[in-house]
Amino acid sequence: MVWQNFAPEIPRLPTLELILVGIMPLVLTLCGTICNLLCIIVLLSKLRREASRNSHRVSTNVYLICLCFADTIALYQFNLDNSVANLTGKSIMSRSLITCKLLEFFGYYTLHLPVAYLTMATIDRTFMLWSPAYKRKIAHPKQAWRICISIAGTLLLTDCFLLALGYVDADGTIQCFHSTNAALYKAFLLYLTWFHLVLMTMVPFAVMLLCTLLTIIKLVRLPRVNEASYLRNRRISIMLACMCITYILLTLPNRLCFSVLTPLVESSIAANVIFSLTDSLTYLASSLNYLFLSVTVKGFWTDLRSLLTMRRFHSHTTETTASTYF
Question: Which residues cross the membrane (predicted)?
């Protein structure tokens, strides 16, 4: 069962709790949106410049672009709804049956998309290191775009039944994540455990950790014939490993609290704060792409300065084509 906020009808004066459950999600939404959009613009710029010369090097960028886009949309789902609920006393979901159904669907859909894209980015980089055939035949931007679209379409089909949840009871109260159809509600409970927690959380996390381990093994054994290539592979691998580990640590508490640990948390007097904090940790993970990319991607700040000073990206292409990001 999904948590419904316990905010009062009239918000209290600013307190530590109000800051944590009301203001922090808004800050994450604003900062995360700006940072993810900047990452998308920079990666798209790099994609345009490098695709024609070294297309095998930029397939990972496609997954990262989709990851940043999915993370941006995710910030406006449960994260924003919880903030509005705690600041105003009424959540977005409870304002109409339409918003209830849309947030039910997009909330989970945008939780599943980022983990799928991050997993694919990790798999892509691992296979590029281990398989020359994969690097030559599959690791191309066009193939990556097709895979990303296929993932989005598949998750759309698996999550669309959530639109059937939600109803208005006899006294006019909107009941989200519930159904008058007992079979449908039972299917939702199974979905939370087996699809949301196991298939879209535990399995991707296991794949991320396995790919990280395989990447480390390959980099240790990789001969340093081309020092620039070796350093580039090491830099990208370290970035993806940090992204995966951070994502796992920040999102796993939320996945557990909203599935198998829900009854235990709801019985606590601090349930509102616990649920909100685990939500904030999850969406903090959606806001950290900028940090990892800006530190790791070579030339990131050059492109970003060009963007902020309103200069065209290609004005410095000559000085950046000698070195690649990925």
Answer: 20-46, 58-78, 105-123, 144-168, 188-217, 238-261, 281-301
* pLDDT (tens digit per residue) in 222-261: 777 677 777 778 888 888 999 999 999 999 998 888 888 8
Task: Name beta bridge partners: 168.
Answer: 174
Q: Tokens 């600013």, residue?
A: 14
One-letter identity of residue 198: V
Cα separation, 125 vs 109, whole angstroms = 25
pTM for the predicted model, two decimal places: 0.86
Summarised one tens digit per residue, pLDDT across range 81-104 is: 888 887 888 889 989 999 999 999
- CATH number, domain at 200? 1.20.1070.10
Type of residue numbered 104: E
Q: What is the DSSP letter of 56?
A: G
On whether residue 312 sits in a domain, the answer given is yes
Q: Is residue 114 part of a domain?
A: yes
- Asked whether residue 62 is assigned to any structural domain, the reply reads yes
Residue 198 resides in a domain: yes
Q: Give the residues across from 207 on adjacent strands.
A: none
Residue partners of 314: CB distance under 8 A and separation at least 6: 49
C-alpha to C-alpha distance for 317 and 245, rounded to whole angstroms: 34
Q: How many domains does the chain have?
A: 1
Q: Which helix (H) or strand (E) holds 33?
A: helix 24-50
Number of separate helices (H) and strands (E) present in the chain = 15, 2
